[in-house]
Each structure stands twice: as C-alpha cells, then as structure tokens.
User: Which sequence fits this backbone?
C-alpha cells in the first residue's frame, strides 16, 4: 500500500509547528479540529513527505496517554486505499484488530479513515482515496 503520511503525536501543536518549520517543513493545509476524534491536526510537508501533527483536545484522549508515556513521538503510518471496507476486512483476516472503524475525517475532505492494530506492526491508519 502507498504511504500517505506519518502521524506524530505532540503536546503543544503550535510550538511543534514552529520547530518543524525550522527543519524545513511547510504547513500543508490549515490547522484543523476533528471533534469526532477529539484532536487537533496540522499537516506538514517536506520534500513530498507528509507529517501529520496530532494533539489531543482533552486529557481523556488515547493520544494523551501516549504523550504521557512517550513524549512527542511518531505513532502511526497512514496508507491510501481505494476501498477501505475491503482493506479492513482483508487485514482483519490477517490478524489486525480494528481500533477505530471507517468514518469521515474532516482533515481529508471527509474521506473515510480507519485505525487498525497488529502486535508485529503497531498502529496503522487507512485513508480511502482515489489516488
Ligand atoms: Ni494520520
């Protein structure tokens, strides 16, 4: 599957945007609040590579626990897929657990995203996309 972006959990998104910019990243789209997932997001781009900064909007988010345990850290790779329901089914048959079922994501013009977990992989995200 083609890599779409790397997801990166951060405690203070504004401060992290500044820090990534110092290393040559540029903002790719706008700062975005995803009420459904209780997170704030900013996509950054550097030489064709997309990094998605993710910060929790409240302390009861799973991202909050991750930040307490690991500090700012990359935590998922997102892959594009043309048919998310098919891909979820296929990965479940191969030992992945669905941790967040396919739902529209405001960051991606309401294209659907899902999160899955495998013990030998960690967390992956799937993004339904024609590309
Ligand atoms: Ni992501």
Assistant:
């Amino acid at each position: 599957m083609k890599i779409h972006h790397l997801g990166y959990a951060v405690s203070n998104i504004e401060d992290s945007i500044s820090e990534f910019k110092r290393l040559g990243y540029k903002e790719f789209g706008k700062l975005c609040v995803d009420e459904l997932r209780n997170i704030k997001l900013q996509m950054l781009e550097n030489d064709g590579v997309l990094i998605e900064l993710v910060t929790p909007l409240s302390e009861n988010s799973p991202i909050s626990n991750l930040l307490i345990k690991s500090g700012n850290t990359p935590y998922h790779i997102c892959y594009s897929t043309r048919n998310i329901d098919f891909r979820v089914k296929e990965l479940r048959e191969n030992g992945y657990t669905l941790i967040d079922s396919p739902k529209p994501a405001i960051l991606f013009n309401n294209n659907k995203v899902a999160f899955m977990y495998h013990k030998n992989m960690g967390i992956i995200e799937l993004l339904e996309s024609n590309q």
